Amino acid sequence: MDIVVVCLAVCLACILICFILIWYVTTYNKYQEYIIRINEAEANIDSILRKRFDLLNKATGIIKPNTEDGEEVLVMIDKLRSKKISNFDLDRVLYDALNEFQAYAEKYSDLKDNDEFIKIELNLNESESEITALRKYYNDIITSYNKLVKKFPSNIIGLFSKFKSKTYYDGKNMEDDIINDFKL
């Protein structure tokens, strides 16, 4: 009888350990899936931001001849060339540069007759809708990931694996310090 109880206890312990191991692996893999999706979303956002930067950079050459006294155009774009900043900060700076671009379009009506300027403006508008969709996708993934990091029992694996909550791509206040760094 003692052997039967011991065997039963060992079997139950093995089953319990197997369930815990299966749960651990499944939850860990879920973390990895979210991390891959977050990296993919960040790469897509980076691609769109680079496209937007290139368009604004190209626009400086078109806007400058149409301005009075050859004033400095889209100064932030020139300053960005030598800086290494995160996508979050790059998005904020490009958003401000986009507003400046639109102000030039309103101020100098000759630009509206320039085919190249019109193409850039259309591509910038298209990139805005793409970046908006990618921000939403990124934030949705971050929400799911952060729930996994914060909720019990998956937070135990998060602690062991040192997974931390991630910040949302929320388009914070555009008057943050990073914007002020690029202004004259």
Textual characterization of the structure:
By secondary structure, the chain is mainly α. Helix content is 76%, strand content 0%. The protein has a single domain, classed as Up-down Bundle (de novo design (two linked rop proteins)). The longest helix is centred in the N-terminal third of the chain and has 62 residues, at 2-63. It is rod-shaped, with a radius of gyration of 26 Å.
Give a nutshell description of this structure.
The chain has 184 residues and is mainly alpha-helical.
- CATH class label: Mainly Alpha
Mean pLDDT level: 83
Q: How is the CATH topology named?
A: de novo design (two linked rop proteins)
Number of distinct beta strands = 0
Number of helices: 6
Radius of gyration based on Cα positions = 26 Å
Strand content: under 5%
Taking pLDDT < 50 over at least 5 consecutive residues as the criterion, the unreliable ranges are 172-184
Q: Work out the helicity level.
A: over 70%
The span between the termini is 86 Å
Secondary-structure element series: HHHHHH
- Which structural class is indicated by helix and strand composition? mainly alpha
Do you know the CATH architecture? Answer: Up-down Bundle
Summed up, the domain count is 1
- What's the main sheet like? none
- What is the overall silhouette? rod-shaped
* CATH homology-level superfamily: LemA-like domain
